[in-house]
Design brief:
The chain has 198 residues and is α+β, with helices and mostly antiparallel strands. It has one domain: Double Stranded RNA Binding Domain (2-Layer Sandwich), CATH 3.30.160.270. It is 43% helix and 27% strand. It has 5 helices and 6 strands, in the order αβββαβββααα. The strands form 2 sheets. A 3-stranded antiparallel β-sheet has the order 1-2-3. Strands 4-5-6 form a 3-stranded antiparallel β-sheet, with helices on one face. Helix 2 runs parallel beside helix 3. It starts with a helix and ends with a helix.
């Protein structure tokens, strides 16, 4: 699977600098009649070690969650602007219920995200909280695209360095890895930024 191989490559490239993001808690307020929802998260791992609040608004809970993460990160990671939701599913496993009513059953949230090339990536989380799993699945998608962009930048710089040192062996390896990561989404804005660095 392309997504799994890219994740393995990104982990290899980033090593200890891989961003591992956690939502410690969240609060949301939804006005159903007005089709508006506001969320606030306490997040660790995105902005250093200290927890930070991230806020978002949307027409519903999942939309607000997506906007919260994208709005907080898109300026630094512009590839997030090129992805869109392609599907959202909630599946209940009522064999896991602990109470007779079954409202405590384990549920699985599956989020499908489409990139600028039309490729679909799937992220899922299972728990007894539908909203909690929706948050984590959305966070997984955000983390995936942020880390792949960071790996792309790292490889782009390594390729430039290998060429400047006349190391065609390394240049070929980095170019192959870049082409694999390019399956993710468009990095045109990122490339423009990198070119402006020189």
């Amino acid at each position: 699977m392309v997504q799994e191989s890219i994740t393995a490559l990104v982990n290899q490239v980033l090593g200890d600098s891989y961003l591992d993001v956690h939502v410690d808690s969240y609060i949301f307020e939804e006005h159903i009649d007005n089709h508006s929802c506001e969320v606030r998260f306490t997040v660790t791992g995105l902005f250093g070690d200290s927890p930070r609040d991230v806020k978002g608004q949307g027409v519903g809970f999942v939309d607000a969650v997506f906007h919260a993460f994208r709005d907080a990160l898109a300026e630094e990671y512009p590839s997030l602007k090129s992805i869109l939701f392609a599907g959202f599913e909630v599946q209940g496993d009522f064999n896991t219920r602990q109470e007779q009513a079954g409202s405590d059953a384990v549920g699985r949230v599956v989020l499908s995200v489409e990139n600028s090339r039309g490729r679909v990536f799937r992220f899922d989380h299972t728990s007894r909280s539908m909203t909690g799993s929706a948050v984590i699945a959305t966070l997984q998608a955000t983390e995936y695209f942020v880390n792949t962009e960071r790996a792309f930048i790292s490889l782009h710089r390594a390729l430039a360095d290998a060429k400047s040192r006349n190391r065609p062996d390394l240049a070929e390896r980095y170019a192959m890895q870049i082409s694999e990561i390019l399956e993710n989404t468009s990095y045109s804005e990122v490339i423009e930024r990198l070119n402006n660095e020189n």
